[in-house]
Specification:
Elements (H helix, E strand, L loop, with lengths): L21 H24 L7 E2 L2 E2 H25 L5 H12 L2 H26 L1 H4 L5 H11 L5 H9 L3 H26 L4 H24 L5 H4 L11 H18 L16 H15 L4 H20 L7 H20 L3 H19 L1
Antiparallel strand pairs: 1-2
Helix pairs in contact: 1-4, 1-9, 2-3, 2-8, 4-9, 8-9, 8-12, 8-13, 9-12, 9-14, 12-13, 12-14
């Protein structure tokens, strides 16, 4: 009689594998449309297309590096734990990589990252064309609207009086600048560490829509923001990283307008609507709908509130730019949910909201 000894190991926790078809259709359409419009605009205006760099480096290099880093952080600890040391680590690493990242999961992630990048480059180029398309802006009307909404005062001046112009400026500057890191990192994290890959594809699709819808808003109501229209309102603020960023943007815009072929910079000034707000609202809303950990959800809502304050405090945006940004974010999240098969999460939240009063009465 033969005795059989078997050992069982828990299967690796792998995010949902999806076919790279329908869930990515809207992201692909958005990327192709935005990139195509940028190419057409460059040809029509006789302007060069640029791959926009930031202080974090060129996007074509930055985003893949972040994705690769997140992949290594996902695979390496598991491989080390399974190998119990360095011996055989290479073979174990390949095995874990194959389990965690089969083709049906890896391909959609790479396509989503490519869609995000193409859409973003198209958005930045279309934004760069604004000074060559419009001779005037709506800043005067938006300043008047701001003063109407705040009973004759400038909103930034009100915040400067209430919050101060010293230490608060440094804190809010940090809040604002974190966004530059947050966006690419959140793209990689949502795709690599989501238990349900469709949630990551949903978020990236929504971000692509943010860029494209935001571009439309720039062309509907061209404006540059209070820091450009009323620079005297911000001279009392202590110098921060935001100050340096604003000066850099002004220099870039001047060099682009003077000779777009003599510089590799792009013009990045536009106020309506606030994409800082729209993107942050998108992240907070998606985390809320997928019922992420309460700490993460609450932290994101708090960060959104601080971003709203910082955009007005530093004069990046007018008051109306904030709800306009939230509207873009809400539309992007809904359309992304529809495209990736996650609309049921809206219905689930609606059902919970209806049932809560009943359960409270029953208690």
């Amino acid at each position: 009689m033969t005795s059989v000894h078997s050992t069982t190991t828990a299967p690796p926790r792998v995010a949902t594998v999806v076919a790279p078809g329908r869930p990515l259709t809207l992201a692909l359409v958005t990327a192709i449309s935005t990139g195509g419009l940028a190419m057409a605009g460059a040809a029509a205006l006789g302007l060069p297309l640029r791959d926009p760099d930031g202080f974090l480096g060129p996007g074509w290099l930055r985003l893949p590096l972040i994705v690769v880093t997140c992949l290594l952080l996902d695979i390496t600890p598991r491989a080390l734990w399974r190998a119990r040391g360095v011996r055989g680590l290479a073979r174990t690493f390949r095995a874990v990589a194959g389990e965690r990242w089969p083709r049906g999961r890896l391909v959609p992630v790479l396509v989503a990252v490519a869609c995000f990048y193409v859409t973003y480059v198209g958005y930045r180029n279309l934004k760069n064309f604004l000074p060559f398309v419009f001779d005037a802006s709506h800043d005067v009307a938006l300043v008047a609207l701001d003063r109407t909404l705040t009973l004759g005062y400038d909103p930034a001046d009100v915040l400067h009086v209430l919050l101060g112009t010293g230490a608060t400026a440094h804190v809010l500057s940090w809040i604002y600048m974190v966004y530059l890191f947050f966006v690419p990192i959140s793209v990689a994290a949502s795709l690599i560490w989501s238990k349900n890959l469709s949630y990551g594809l949903w978020y990236v699709t929504a971000l692509c829509l943010n860029w494209s819808l935001g571009t439309v808003s720039y062309y509907l109501i061209p404006s540059s923001g209070p820091f450009w229209a009323m620079p005297w309102s911000f001279v009392d603020l202590e110098r921060t990283d935001v100050t340096g960023l604003q000066e850099s943007l002004l220099r870039n815009r001047a060099s682009v307008v003077a000779d777009p072929f003599a510089t590799s910079s792009v013009s990045g000034i536009a106020a309506f609507a606030s994409l800082h707000v729209s993107v942050t609202f998108t992240a907070a809303l998606v985390l809320h709908l997928v019922r992420a950990r309460p700490f993460l959800r609450n932290a994101m809502w708090v960060y959104l509130a601080l971003v709203v304050v910082s955009t007005v405090y530093f004069g990046w945006h007018y008051i109306i730019d904030v709800p306009a940004g939230m509207a873009i974010g809400a539309a992007a999240v809904w359309l992304g949910a529809w495209a990736t098969g996650n609309l049921h999460l809206y219905r689930r939240d609606a059902v919970v909201a209806v049932r809560r009063p009943e359960s409270a009465l029953a208690g």
